[in-house]
Inverse folding.
């Protein structure tokens, strides 16, 4: 199948900036538009979703995603709402949720459906809570946290660290892809007026049993204080 590489640097600015660019919204599609744009416009880390014959892979959904959404986005910088609606109709049929075509949904529900049930991709994240041995496998991490008065305009690094600390979570291993859902979605309430993207994410302190430097003496740390 024809494929186009993700957009980079000046090319990304040239192709994606301006009117009639991005993914056209229609009928509460913003959750899916934003997720698809984030996953495919400027990165190839999940391009296996477009080509690889996974065990449960639905080739029809895969071709719609590749040929009607990702390729036009990377080639011209614009995707028509009709193309996204075509995908939403297929998700409704496969997932047995009629509201995928007209209602606002949680991005995590969309990702779980298309990655797990339709394409059959292995979970991207392995999380562990506190001293519990049981692992939680998931496809994305949704940031939950109480309102922090000192975080007026936070960056992604701060939000991830606060959220992991609040719920005593650790990454069992370095993820191949770390999809993070910001606490800034939905119509009713937004915790922060804006969030600064962290262009790099330091997960050193978020990894389970990872050797780290003592902040006092500089040797390998033996104790961790939250």
């Amino acid at each position: 199948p024809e494929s186009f590489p993700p957009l980079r640097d000046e090319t990304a600015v040239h192709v994606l900036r301006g009117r009639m660019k991005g993914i056209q919204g229609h009928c509460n599609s913003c959750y899916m538009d934003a997720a698809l744009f984030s996953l495919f416009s400027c990165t190839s880390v999940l391009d296996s979703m477009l080509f690889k014959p996974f065990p449960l892979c639905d080739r029809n959904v895969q071709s719609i995603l590749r040929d009607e959404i990702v390729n036009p986005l990377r080639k011209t910088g614009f995707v028509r709402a009709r193309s996204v609606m075509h995908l939403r109709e297929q998700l409704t049929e496969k997932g047995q949720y009629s509201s995928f075509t007209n209602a606002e949904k949680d991005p995590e529900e969309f990702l779980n459906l298309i990655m797990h049930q339709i394409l059959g991709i292995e979970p991207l994240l392995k999380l562990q809570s506190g001293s519990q041995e049981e692992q939680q496998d998931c496809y994305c991490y949704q940031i939950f946290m109480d309102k922090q008065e000192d975080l007026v305009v936070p960056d992604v690094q701060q939000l991830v660290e606060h959220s992991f600390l609040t719920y005593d979570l650790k990454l069992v291993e370095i993820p191949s892809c770390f999809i993070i859902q910001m606490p800034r979605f939905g119509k009713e309430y937004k915790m922060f007026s804006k969030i600064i993207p962290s262009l790099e994410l330091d997960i050193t302190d978020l990894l389970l049993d990872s050797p780290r430097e003592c902040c006092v003496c500089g040797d390998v740390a033996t104790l961790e204080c939250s």
Summary: The CA atoms of residues 28 and 104 lie 5 Å apart.
